[in-house]
Write a structure and sequence with these properties.
Low-confidence stretches: none
Radius of gyration: 17 Å
Order of helices and strands: EEEEE
Mean pLDDT: 87
Number of strands: 5
Shape: extended
Distance between the termini: 53 Å
Length: about 70
């Protein structure tokens, strides 16, 4: 199965920021580590030191649910 390899990312997780690579196979993160080697079938994305914020949720969104008057 082919994978996506995100290189040169800044991963924000539990109050820390680490510079790392992330390997994703299917819909699952397989590995988070520095300098992950790519395989010939990998799709490589250079994050260019951009931030990755897993599970980022806007907790200020309010959804109105019925019934409405």
């Amino acid at each position: 199965m082919s994978a996506t390899l995100i290189k040169n990312a800044r991963l924000v997780n539990e109050g820390s920021i680490i510079e790392t690579d992330i390997r994703i196979v299917g819909q699952c993160i397989e590995m988070i580590a520095s300098n992950i080697s790519s395989k010939p079938s990998d799709t490589i994305v250079d994050a260019q030191r951009g931030y990755i914020i897993p599970g980022m949720i806007d907790d200020q969104v309010h959804f109105a649910t019925g019934p409405y008057p």
